[in-house]
Amino acid sequence: MSATLKPKKQGKELPVVKKDTRPRRKALKKTPSFRISKVLFPTDFSESSADMLRMVVNFCEKLQADLVVFHAYKIALVDEYMPSAMVDSMLDEGEKAAMEKLHELTSGLETSVQIDYQVKMGFTAESISEAANTSGADLIIMGTNGCNSLEDRMFGTVSWNTIKHAEVPVLTIPEGAAVPAFQNIIFPFECTDKDLEIIQFAVEIASLFDSKIHLIHFLLEGSVVNKTILDKINHRYHKEIREEKLQIQILADKNITDGIVKYAEGVSADMIIMVTHHRGLMATLFHMSTTRNIVLYSSVPLLAFKAE
C-alpha cells in the first residue's frame, strides 16, 4: 500500500521542435550519468529513525529528489485453520498501524521534498528491494547497526541482505554516526573501464557537496597498473573537477578490507563506494565478503553498487 503527502506539480507542456536534418559530426561517447530522482528510505521505527530521516531529507533536498518512506511489517503467526476473514483483518490492521507510524515519523518535517509512503508485509530485505522497484527509486538509503549477534554473523544484517537483493545502489549509514558531509569519498577501483561509470557518479556527488574523491587501487603481487585507464581518468574527470579534488593512490596491502578501513581513517572519509560483483580480479579485490565486512564492521557510510 502507498500514500502520498502531496501531489506532484504538473510540468509545463514543451514546445514542438522541428528535427534538425543537417549532418553532424559523430559525438564522443560519454560516460552514463546517474540521475537520482527518487530515494527510498526504509525504517524500522527505532530510536534513531527520526534523526536518520532528517539526514535523508537533507540529502534529497541536495539532489532535488523525491522521497519514499517505507516500512516492512509482520503479523503474528497465522494458523492454517484460521478463517480467511480473520487473516485479512490481521493484514489490514498491520498495514494501517504501519502507515500511521510512517505519517507520525514525518509529521514534524518542514521540507519541500515530496514524500510518499509505502508499507508491505513480508521479509524486510526482500520487501525493501521490491519497494524500490515498484516505486521507481534510484537509490536506497538506510541505517545499519553493524553485526551485533551470532545470527547477524551467520545470516547477515538487514542492510547487508538488502545490498544483495537490491537492483539499485544502497547507501548504508551506521547508527549513531555523525551527519555525513561527504567531504571525502573513497572508491577502491579495479582500474578497468567498468570503473568509469562509478567514478562519474562520484564526480556528480562531489559537485553537490564540494567533495574530494580518493580513488585507491590495490596493487596485488605480480600485477601491474593499467596506465591506459589512469590516463582516461585524468583526461576525462579533471575537466569536470579540480585536480586537487580528485586524488589517485596506488596502495599495496594484502588485506583489502583492512587497507580500505585504514585509508578511510587516515583521510577522515565519510563515504566508501564499493562494487558488488565478481569478474576477473573482482573475485579478490571486490569480493562480496569485502563489502560485507565494510557494512558490518566499519563506522563509515558505504554506497554499494551492483555492477552488471
Q: Gap between N and C termini, in Å?
A: 31 Å
Individual helix count? 10
Mean pLDDT rating: 79
Rg (C-alpha, Å) = 22 Å
Portion of residues within helices = 25-40%
CATH topology of the largest domain: Rossmann fold
Anisotropy-based shape? elongated
The percentage of residues in β strands lies in 15-25%
Please mark out the parts with pLDDT under 50 across 5 or more consecutive residues, or reply none.
7-32, 146-156, 280-286
Task: Give a structural overview.
The chain is an alpha/beta fold and 308 residues long. It folds into two domains: 34-174, Rossmann fold, CATH 3.40.50.620; 184-305, Rossmann fold, CATH 3.40.50. It is built from ten helices and eleven strands. It has helices spanning 49-63, 84-106, 124-135, 150-155, 158-165, 195-209, 227-237, 256-266, 282-285, 288-297; strands at 2-4, 38-42, 66-73, 115-121, 139-144, 170-174, 184-188, 212-218, 246-251, 271-275, 302-305. It has an eleven-stranded mixed β-sheet with strand order 1-4-3-2-5-6-11-10-7-8-9, with helices on both faces. Helix 3 (124-135) packs across helix 5. The radius of gyration is 22 Å and the shape is elongated. The two termini are 31 Å apart. 34% of the residues are buried. The model is unreliable at 7-32, 146-156 and 280-286 (pLDDT under 50).
Could you outline the blueprint of secondary structure elements for this entry?
Layout: E1 2-4, E2 38-42, H1 49-63, E3 66-73, H2 84-106, E4 115-121, H3 124-135, E5 139-144, H4 150-155, H5 158-165, E6 170-174, E7 184-188, H6 195-209, E8 212-218, H7 227-237, E9 246-251, H8 256-266, E10 271-275, H9 282-285, H10 288-297, E11 302-305
Parallel strand pairs: 2-3, 2-5, 3-4, 5-6, 7-8, 7-10, 8-9, 10-11
Antiparallel strand pairs: 1-4, 6-11
